[in-house]
Design a protein that fits this description.
This protein has helices spanning about 5-25, 30-40, 50-55, 60-80. With about 80 residues, the protein is mainly α. Helix 3 crosses helix 4 (about 60-80). The radius of gyration is 14 Å and the shape is globular. The two termini are about 25 Å apart. This is RNA polymerase primary sigma factor.
Length: about 80
């Protein structure tokens, strides 16, 4: 597959993910921000758990737990759109 096509597809997926996240009433603002950082929707660069913990002023362990729960929540929301 052409590399430019791959990049176009990735951008489409990221745009759709952000649209779903922004429209979902089951996700609060903090969760939206975590998702955007974690999946590179904010700066086109995914952020690691340790960095997220610093940004959100919590321990890496607590952030990992929060991200794990949030990912499950997001995947359940995405299932409704697929």
């Amino acid at each position: 597959m052409d590399n430019n096509i791959d990049l176009e597809i990735i951008e489409i997926i990221k745009d759709k993910l952000e649209e779903i996240i922004n429209k979902s009433s089951g996700i609060n603002n903090r969760e939206r921000e975590i998702i955007k950082y974690r999946y590179g929707l904010k700066d086109n660069r995914p952020v690691q758990i340790r960095e997220l913990a610093k940004i959100f002023n919590t321990s890496p362990k607590k952030m990992k737990e929060e991200v794990d729960l949030l990912e499950k929540k997001i995947f359940n929301i995405l299932k409704r759109y697929i």
